[in-house]
Write a structure and sequence with these properties.
Layout: E1 78-80, E2 94-104, E3 109-118, H1 124-132, E4 141-146, E5 156-164, E6 167-176, E7 179-187, H2 197-218
Antiparallel strand pairs: 1-2, 2-3, 3-7, 4-5, 5-6, 6-7
Length: 219
């Protein structure tokens, strides 16, 4: 969660617990206790980055999808430094990621965009389903409800609305090929001129789809 903004995140960790018990005979010879097996390495999706202090750098290819040039993003939104969480690359199974956060100081609106590209051998469908199932899974979110998305948006898309610390908020994600885009938006309650999130998502999806069609035609 950023200060005033938010980003839903899944904290992934592995814990190995070894239980052993000493067995003894009927007062004769104590059974030998086998040493506990060494802990198995965690699968890539559950491993944290080796150097967690390394600064996050946007993937140059994915930066084009951060809505910086979108006509659907009003001029009142200014990009601000992003210090809310570890980069989504720590989830594993991702070859690159890019992210940006925009804020309107006078209205306390916050918009965040995360874009990631899956590894070639990852099945996008199941990954996307698991990813979006965590979007609204936060005890600080109240009144979570699923709302519709524009027809034809991405290969798959999901959108939620809820309140957080008294503010109205939305989280939406879309899948297009091997790219997942997450957009989150937070604003004061009953704000009269909220962002048109549908238009933003459609603009983002159109840009991704165009590039993928161009790449397919060239390949």
């Amino acid at each position: 969660m950023i200060r005033r903004g938010f980003i839903p995140t899944a904290a992934l960790a592995g814990v190995v617990i070894v239980l052993s018990a000493a067995c003894s005979g009927d007062g004769e010879e104590e059974a030998e206790t086998a040493p506990p097996p060494p802990p198995q390495p965690l699968p890539p999706a559950f491993q944290l980055p080796v150097d967690e202090s390394a600064p996050f750098v946007n993937d140059p290819f994915l930066e084009r999808y951060l809505l910086r040039d979108s006509v659907e993003l009003p001029d009142r939104f200014l990009e601000v430094a992003r210090d809310d969480r570890e980069p989504i690359l720590s989830l594993g199974l991702v070859t690159g990621a890019a992210r940006a956060t925009y804020r309107v100081a006078i209205t306390n609106e916050v918009l965040s965009v995360d874009v990631l590209m899956l590894e070639p051998d990852v099945d996008p469908g199941p990954f996307f389903t698991a990813f979006v199932d965590t979007l609204a899974d936060n005890p600080n979110f109240r009144g979570v409800r699923s709302i519709g998305v524009v027809r034809g948006l991405g290969d798959s898309a999901r959108r939620y609305a809820f309140t957080v610390e008294g503010d109205d908020a939305e989280a939406a994600a879309l899948l297009r090929g091997d790219i997942i885009a997450l957009v989150t938006y937070r604003r004061p309650p009953d704000f009269r001129q909220p962002l048109d999130l549908d238009a933003l998502l459609a603009d983002l999806d159109a840009a991704i789809e165009f590039d993928q069609r161009e790449a397919a035609a060239e390949g």
